[in-house]
Design brief:
The chain is of the alpha/beta class. The protein has helices spanning 2-31, 36-69, 74-102, 108-140, 143-153, 163-179, 243-251, 272-277, 295-302, 311-321, 323-327, 338-350, 368-383, 395-401, 419-424, 426-432, and strands spanning 203-214, 217-228, 232-236, 257-262, 265-266, 280-283, 356-360, 387-392, 404-409, 412-418. A hairpin with a 2-residue loop joins strand 4 (257-262) and strand 5 (265-266).
């Protein structure tokens, strides 16, 4: 059922944007300032992605076949598809109201209320599909039905559903993330409301009793953590707590014992290259770029497990994210500044198309302004729905960005909770936040 997985991933992105817009319009009411560029980018994304592609995929494939198999579903499908048809005119009305507010012809309060009504309708629509449609589809559609639907959703040559269209939508999503006010982070933990209380969390990584040693010294002492899809998890702790050893154990370059389940597969015994092929990619501590090689060659090395046909397009995406790397792409990587090398290390990891990105001390040794820039990059990746483990000594910045966090001390997990809970924990504040 690849189609359902794709639709649910798209719903998560739409939900993240909705949560973020709600935060932005609350700030607009407080500050009396219209975030025109951000709201325009959101409306562009909804128009091109949701109304132009997402709804069309559902209508033409999943909903069409479901009508044939379940007569009782017709009233519900009629309502959902009517909401699909009304989408463009509702967006057009929001655009007009945004223009009127910027021009002073309408109030900020009227604009924010209109956006709230629209977002509430979209969230109710998503909930209805996930609650009422997917379970029914799983029951009544045949394997042949799913084969037909999945083939349509996975067709890379299709101009609407194919890889070129997906690249366009990723760029639109990244634009939304980059234009969001600094105070707002996408992918808030409240996005989890999409899952019913009875459903199981969508766990991407589950680690149980992981241990690792350097000779006779045990560096990790039975660590157990989990990471859900689209989640940013922070590992915080003092130097020597085991953060780097843990990430190296996950990526396969550090001997370990214990159990690692990744995307439903036990990878505990797999080599590092096999783990990377499954989607675990690491930006290591200290950058570790190949200094004599060019910047572009460093990036291409990150894609050595990927099909050659997609490498050029992925390079351009990295250059869009980090323009300085494109400007200097023919120069040796060793000529870059520390901050630029960190961008290169992150870009190299992204070239592997990670399902899970491991970031080990990305702010280490950087000036404060560059630290902020690195965390903005992490925020943008989080906004795109990427699953991230962020190991950082800069505990406040890491926990402020993270959905959840784990505190490590001498190779053991001593505390866990949401990022906000850990920031507010007196023990964490005293030991790691200087408060």
């Amino acid at each position: 059922m690849e189609a359902l997985s794709i639709i649910k991933d798209e719903h998560r992105n739409l939900w993240r944007i909705a949560i973020t817009v709600e935060q932005v319009i609350a700030e607009m009411e407080r500050d009396r300032k219209v975030e025109e560029a951000f709201l325009t980018s959101v409306l562009d994304y909804f128009e091109h992605f949701m109304d132009g592609c997402h709804h069309r995929k559902e209508d033409e494939h999943l909903f069409r076949v479901l009508r044939q198999r379940a007569d009782a579903a017709a009233p519900l499908l009629d309502r959902l598809q009517a909401e699909h048809r009304n989408g463009p005119q509702n967006l057009a009305a929001l655009r007009r109201q945004l223009a009127d507010t910027v021009a002073g012809r309408s109030t900020i309060g009227g604009l924010t209320e209109a956006f709230r009504l629209y977002l509430n309708d979209q969230k109710a629509h998503i909930k209805s599909e996930e609650r009422d449609i997917y379970g029914l589809a799983s029951e009544v559609l045949t394997p042949a039905d799913w084969a037909e639907i999945d083939a349509a959703f996975l067709d890379n040559d299709d101009p609407v559903f194919g890889s070129a269209a997906r690249a366009e939508f990723r760029e639109l999503f990244h634009k939304v993330a980059s234009l969001a006010p600094v105070s707002v982070g996408l992918g808030a933990s409240s996005a989890g409301e999409l899952q019913s209380a009875a459903s199981q969390p969508d766990v991407l990584l589950s680690v149980a009793n992981l241990e690792s040693s350097y000779g006779r010294i045990k560096a990790l002492k039975g660590i157990s953590i989990e990471v859900r899809r689209g989640e940013t998890v922070a590992l915080v702790g003092a130097n020597g707590a085991g953060k780097t050893t843990f990430l190296r154990s996950l990526s396969g370059v550090q001997p370990m014992s214990g159990r690692i389940l990744f995307d439903g597969e036990d990878i505990s015994k797999l080599r590092a290259d096999q783990r990377m092929r499954r989607g675990i990619c690491q930006s290591p501590e200290g950058r570790q770029v190949f200094g004599p090689l060019s910047i572009e060659d460093n990036l291409r090395l990150g894609a050595y497990t990927q099909p050659k046909a997609q490498v050029e397009g992925d390079l351009e995406k990295i250059y869009t994210m980090f323009p300085i790397l494109k400007e200097k792409r023919k120069l040796p990587a060793g000529t870059l500044s520390g901050g630029q090398q960190q961008m290169l290390a992150i870009g190299r990891a992204l070239m592997g198309r990670p399902k899970l990105l491991l970031l080990d001390e990305p702010s280490m040794g950087l000036a404060p302004l560059l630290v902020e820039e690195v965390f903005n990059v992490v925020k943008a990746l989080k906004a795109q729905g990427m699953s991230i483990i962020l190991a950082e000594q800069n505990a406040f910045s890491a926990l402020a960005l993270a959905d959840r966090g784990y505190v490590l001390e001498t190779g053991s997990v001593t505390l866990t909770g949401t990022g906000r809970e850990l920031i507010e924990d007196e023990q964490v504040r005293a030991a790691y936040l200087g408060m």
